[in-house]
Amino acid sequence: MTASRHISLLVTSGRGPAECQQAIAGVLDVMRNEAELLAVDFNANGALTKHGFKSAVVLVGGADAEAFAKNWRGTIQWRSQSNLRPTHKRANWFIGVFDLSAPVQTPERIQASDVTFATFRAGGPGGQHQNTTDSAVRATHRPTGLSAVAREARSQHRNKALALERLQHLMAAQAAADETAQTASRNELHYALERGNPVRCFKGHDFREMKGG
Length: 213
Prior knowledge:
By secondary structure, the protein is α+β, with helices and mostly antiparallel strands. The protein is 27% helix and 28% strand. It is built from four helices and ten strands. A seven-stranded mixed sheet has the order 2-3-1-5-4-9-10. Strands 6-7-8 form a three-stranded antiparallel sheet. The N and C termini lie far apart (41 Å). About 2% of the residues have low confidence.
């Protein structure tokens, strides 16, 4: 089995207010559900704030990973009255989804001794062919708290290997995000979100997608 290509994305609220952090949390849920429907491997990591996420790193893989990513890259608009500031007149909030380049300094290989593996019953795509045993695996890197899931293989051993591989890619993506935080490109990604030209638009706190903008 050849290794699937992994794509690393940065989902950012830029300098936006707390409502934009809420938008990231909602969009991550939509992304996760969409990935499940398309049988795209999906793992995300972000520092949780009081209201959502300031930013998050998303790792996707599989045959349809590029099609999935292409459908998200750009500015995302969320239309909703603020439940944090009910009298606030603004009802349009913007976040961005951007590609992450490989980090300049490659992270060290993850040691299996630093990883905790947890098994659970596989769900998600696959229908009648999906696993019914506890063969799905979540790998958590204890030093960083990063975690990745693999569920598609029937073998628990194979899923452990896949989860470890994805954890390594996720660590590289996080390293790339950390690097951009210290360079001018961070300003381009976080602070130059293109208002008024979103690639996708969602409405309300249940994040219903608005077709056609």
